[in-house]
Write a structure and sequence with these properties.
Elements lengths: L7 E3 L7 E4 L4 E3 L6 E2 L3 E3 L5 E8 L2 E6 H9 L7 E5 L12 E5 H10 L17 H14 L11
Antiparallel strand pairs: 1-2, 2-3, 3-4, 5-6, 6-7, 8-9
Length: about 150
C-alpha cells in the first residue's frame, strides 16, 4: 500500500457514519459534513489513540489501531490482539499493525521495554523492532512455556 496516499474505508459497524484511514485518522460523516476526529490519549503510557463514536445515541470509546486493522485487514478474532510492530503506540498506519496473541504481545513488550515498571531495578534495552520480532520468534518456538525471570543481584 502506498504510504503517501491516504485511503478511507468505513468503520465496521459504523458504516455511513464514520470512516478510518490507512494512516490512522478517523472522520465523522454526520450531517453530510466530513470532520476529522481528535483522538484521546489512553492506555498505560497514554500514547494509544482512542475516539468516541456514537450510533443510535450510544457512545463507545474505541482504539484507533483496532479500527484501522478491522477496516483494512479483517475482524479481530476473540483472544487475539493488535500489536504495533515498531512499538510506537500512536503509529496506527495499517502496515505497522499485526495480529498476535496476548501472550506473544506481552512477551514482545517485555523484550522491547514497552512498559517499564516503576521502581524496577532491571536494566532495559530499547531494541530495534526487527530484533524484538526475531527474538520473540525464537523464544516462542524453542520455549513456548518459558517465563522470563529476573536474576538476583
Amino acid at each position: 500500500m502506498n504510504e503517501n496516499i491516504e485511503i478511507w474505508k468505513p468503520v465496521l459497524d459504523y458504516e455511513g457514519i464514520y470512516e478510518v484511514s490507512n494512516i490512522g485518522r478517523v472522520k465523522s460523516l454526520k450531517f453530510g459534513k466530513e470532520k476529522i476526529l481528535k483522538p484521546l490519549n489512553a492506555g498505560r503510557d497514554r500514547n494509544y489513540h482512542q475516539v468516541i463514536l456514537c450510533k443510535n445515541k450510544e457512545k463507545k470509546q474505541l482504539f484507533v489501531h483496532r479500527l484501522v486493522y478491522e477496516a483494512f485487514v479483517n475482524r479481530i478474532p476473540e483472544g487475539l490482539t493488535i500489536d504495533h510492530i515498531d512499538n510506537i503506540a500512536d503509529n496506527n498506519k495499517v502496515e505497522n499493525l499485526q495480529l498476535m496473541t496476548r501472550e506473544e504481545n506481552s512477551r514482545k513488550a517485555h523484550l522491547g521495554r514497552k512498559y517499564p515498571r516503576q521502581n524496577d531495578q532491571t536494566t532495559y534495552y530499547n531494541l530495534p523492532p526487527s530484533l524484538v520480532k526475531f527474538l520473540s520468534a525464537i523464544i516462542h518456538k524453542e520455549f513456548p512455556k518459558m517465563e522470563i525471570i529476573e536474576k538476583g543481584a
